[in-house]
Amino acid sequence: MSLLQSTQFRPDPSATTARRAFIRAWPDFQNPAAWLVALILIIMPLIASGFFLIEIFATTLILGIIALSLMFLAGYGGMVSLMQLTIAGFAGYMVAVFGVSGNANISLGWPWWLATPMALALATLFGTLGGALAVRTEGIYTIMITLAIGAAFYYFTNQNWAIFNGHTGINTVATPHFWGVDWRADIAFYYVTLGIAAICYFAVQYVSRAPFGLALQGVRDNSRRMAALGFNPNAHRIAAYAFAAFIAGLGGVLQVWNYRQISPGSVSVGACIDILIIAVVGGITRPIGPFIGAFIFVLLRTFALDVLIKFGLDGNRFRLLIGLGFLAIVFWSSDGVIGLWERWRRHHVSSAKRTGGGRHG
Amino acid sequence: MDSVAHRLSAVGAGAALELRGVTRLFGALAALTDVTITVRPGERRAVLGSNGAGKTTLFNCITGDFPPSSGTIRFFGEDITQFPPYERIRRGLRRTYQISALFPGLTVQDNVYLACRGVSRGRFSFLRPGQNDALMHATENLVQAVHLAAVKDQRVAELAHGQQRQLEIALALAGAPRFILFDEPAAGLSPTERRELIEILTSLPAHIGYIIIEHDMDVALRVVESVTMMHNGRIFKEGPPREIESDPEVQELYLGGGHE
């Protein structure tokens, strides 16, 4: 902005409105902090060890993508879906079933470039069907019905041996190798994850200002009025579930590539609720929230153990820390960590204005 | 292109809106009883009546917010009784709400843009509108027509009451309306805002008819050519404004009935 003001060259008015529209459309491009974060993420392999790259950052990005799908539904559509991890897990299972794995009796052995689109298509279908059920309800009943779908899928994977291989799950799932690169090697996989997370992030941000996203926010604010404007609110809700399911599916594919195995434990009810916690802690008003939430979650999960043991407590109590953090966030900031940050900044800016005030008077 | 059939059926139809024996029950309570109304295309009509007379229920039945319990509703000759609200809106029906029904989390511009998008193609579009998008121009024009250009980037939650009422009207004017239902558009407006409202209503193109629910007789009688009086969910009297105004029964029931 200051650059624009200081130049002598005055662009014609249509160009400035175009520029203003661009700034509104892509706020990240105007934010130096966003550029800094992007730069750090890109050069991360120079700084971080393999452990940090995969266990911290890739895991954060994968959980962030799945939580992003929940953020899209909850933030723009007002629909809290607890089945987003289930959809991701379903996509992971489908990669293992259609692709190559150690369980040759189950896996069909398709190459990854066939198995992955198939898994994504089926996950999207799964999410759309679940959504078609869920949109018949509102509020707490949406949570209940999606939780029921998640729980049902968990028990089904435990008991079905023909496709899901029961409680042992599917092991040694093959990951993509092409152009002479092992894409599951630490650095390559980190970049794959980062790239897909960035695409999902910008896609959600872009769609939120496209007619589909605006209409979804309209349905969230007042679905009856949307019908009185010519929209079919339930069709929009179901389409939102489909879009979110595709994103969750991408996260699920990355997750199965990351662990190279998938078992019912990956789609447990507890894991479904973790996604909700991640989204709420980070904040569901903006697409960056889920990634921040996932980062906090992964840090706590990884390091709280050591800290707790140092204080002479049981290391498995890291969930207690996460739970307390969750309570604190819900208590003090309904829009998560980004809400806290924004409030702090607004406070900072307004106090700065007060000290330098009087210019406008 | 569902319009071929409905245009054909509209050719022979004299009425913009035709209600026959419309009844709406809420449990044992009849909010509307056997209401039969015919409104010509381009006709402007006021619906008067005390609270609980069934005026808003009438609107809700016409737009499909609540379907009628019995009776038929025809819109330009087409039977729309079983249609969901959005199908009626896509055929050129519009309405405003007595209590503003807007999208508080979105800006004024986004609210109007949604209204324009709702009655055109691409409701599910994943592509953002460009600078030269026809609907963006339509949006700008509408925002200007209701005097909200200065606040178009503000969130609706931050608007004053009068501005929200104006936005409410803008949403009903989007696209190519053929018939509009205004539910107390002047409620809570200042005298200046009322003058602006009258100006907007009287400057609507002649082919757009409307029904207006309005307690303020000054507003109502200046913008309509016919009046329907309702009482206890039934049509009580119909006629030109002067006749209704001077009708002793009406005066006793409505104007003298403790209403300002």
Q: Keywords for this structure?
A:
heterodimer, A: 361 residues, mainly alpha, two-stranded antiparallel ribbon, 15 helices, B: 260 residues, alpha/beta, Rossmann fold, 2 domains, 6-stranded mixed β-sheet, 4-stranded antiparallel β-sheet, globular
Description of the molecule:
The complex is a heterodimer of chains A (361) and B (260). Chain A is globular, with a radius of gyration of 22 Å. In chain A, helix 6 (84-98) runs antiparallel to helix 7 (112-134), helix 9 packs antiparallel against helix 11 and helix 12 crosses helix 13. Residues 1-13 and 356-361 of chain A have low confidence and may be disordered. Chain A has a domain at 47-292. Chain A has 15 helices and two strands. The two termini of chain A are 23 Å apart. Helix content of chain A is 71%, strand content 1%. Chain A has a two-stranded antiparallel ribbon. Chain A has 361 residues and is mainly α. In chain B, helix 4 (108-118) packs parallel to helix 6 (161-173). Chain B contains ten helices and ten strands. Mean pLDDT of chain B is 85; it is low at 8-12. In chain B, the strands form two sheets. A six-stranded mixed sheet of chain B has the order 6-7-8-3-9-10, sandwiched between helices. In chain B, strands 2-1-4-5 form a four-stranded antiparallel sheet. Chain B has two domains: 1-92 and 177-260, 3-Layer(aba) Sandwich (Rossmann fold); 101-176, no CATH class. In chain B, strand 1 (17-26) and strand 2 form a beta hairpin. With 260 residues, chain B is α/β, with parallel strands linked by helices. The longest helix of chain B has 13 residues, at 161-173. Chain A binds chain B through residues 14, 17-18, 21, 25, 206-207, 209-212, 214-215, 217-218, 220-222, 224-232, 235-236, 239, and chain B through 63-65, 84-86, 89-90, 94-95, 97, 101-106, 110, 113-115, 117-119, 122-129, 131, 171, 174-175.
Write the layout of secondary structure elements.
The complex is a heterodimer of chains A (361) and B (260).
Chain A: H1 2-6, H2 13-25, H3 32-42, H4 44-47, H5 50-77, H6 84-98, H7 112-134, H8 140-159, E1 177-178, E2 181-182, H9 186-208, H10 211-227, H11 233-259, H12 269-282, H13 289-310, H14 318-332, H15 336-355
Antiparallel strand pairs in A: 1-2
Helix pairs in contact in A: 5-9, 5-11, 5-12, 5-13, 6-7, 6-8, 6-11, 7-8, 7-11, 9-11, 10-11, 12-13, 13-14
Chain B: H1 3-11, E1 17-26, E2 29-39, E3 44-48, H2 55-63, E4 70-75, E5 78-79, H3 85-90, E6 93-95, H4 108-118, H5 134-145, H6 161-173, E7 179-183, H7 191-202, E8 209-213, H8 217-223, E9 226-231, E10 234-239, H9 241-246, H10 248-255
Parallel strand pairs in B: 3-8, 3-9, 6-7, 7-8
Antiparallel strand pairs in B: 1-2, 1-4, 4-5, 9-10
Helix pairs in contact in B: 4-5, 4-6
